[in-house]
Each structure stands twice: as C-alpha cells, then as structure tokens.
Amino acid sequence: MRELVYYVAVSLDGCIAGPYGEFDAFLVEGDHMSAQNERFADAVPTDLAAALGIDQSGGGFDTVLMGWNTYAVGLPMGATSPYRHLRQIVFTRSHLDDDLGERPNLEVTDEDPVEVVRRLKAEPGRAVWLCGGGQLATQLVDEIDRLVLKRQPLLFGAGIPLFAPGAYEPRAFAEVATTAYESGVVVSEYVRR
C-alpha cells in the first residue's frame, strides 16, 4: 500500500508559513539542500529542478496533494502546474471555476481529501506527498503514514501551523532518522506507530 508522506519545512515554533502565507524566511541555501534535493528531488518544482539540473526521474513520489493556499503561492509567477512531473491534486471549495489556463497533470477538486487519499493508497504507485497546508494536514491526520520535517532555525512568532488546531486525539509516531546540518536545519523522519 502506498504511503502518505507529509514532507514540509517547519519553524521552531511549529509554523509552515508566516501569518500571510510567506515562507521566504526558510533557508534555501546550505548543506541541507543538496541532501534534500537528492533524496526528495521530486519535491522540487519542475522548472526549478530543470534549471538546477536535478534529475527527477527516480523519485519516491508520483502524486502531490495541496490545499488551495499552498497552490496559489505560485500563481502570481504563472506557475499553474508547479509539479507537472507529478500528478497534482489541489483541494478547494471556492476556486473550482477559476480559469487557471493550461495546467498539465493538475486536478482541482472539492472532494473529501480523506476519500481521495484512501483511493490513492489503494492504487498501485509510489508514495503520495502531502505538500501543505496545515488545514489539509489536519483533515488527513489519520491518513499520514510518515512525517519528514525540515526544522528550520527560526521563529515566525505567528503563522500557519504544521497542523491546524483541531479536535483530534493524540497520535503516536516513532522517530526513524534525524540529521542535523551545519546550516542549523534538522531533518527528522517519523513513521506512524
């Protein structure tokens, strides 16, 4: 069965973005980048990977899930299909009829994310990457099999939390790997117990 992997950068105070969705404070240079770009090459936007010469042919993901706000970050720059090397599913209830122009391998849906993930897990294929955001992660908390957290050495003070506050019971995960980099970024990986 395919895994749902929540692979995301997070601040020390638990935010995946600032209060207005900004994420430009996250470190994108340093010794952590080459290791992450090698292991998670398919989590780099298609055009950026091509510009950097990153081979995305053998990655661990074949599908990426994101909420509308995560997806919309690239729209002002014309990125209507940011990960077109993957099947992209964007969840929204209010932007179904937006004219986004050409968007290869991208589906916008108002389906229940849990039902979509359960259907994806039953299909053959590689892992499914949960890109963000916190509201979607909270909806999918019981479907997440693996967490890969890129803890950044910064505090946002306020922002979008890794998981939105919600009425869910505690979940247990087991740490399987942690790597600290000179940049100050610490990548920790956990699997559901």
Automatic annotation (TrEMBL):
Domain Bacterial bifunctional deaminase-reductase C-terminal: 4-186
GO molecular function terms attached to this record: 5-amino-6-(5-phosphoribosylamino)uracil reductase activity
Gene3D superfamilies in the record: Dihydrofolate Reductase, subunit A
GO BP terms in the entry: riboflavin biosynthetic process
Pfam families: RibD_C
Name used for this protein in its record: Dihydrofolate reductase
Species this protein is from: Agromyces agglutinans
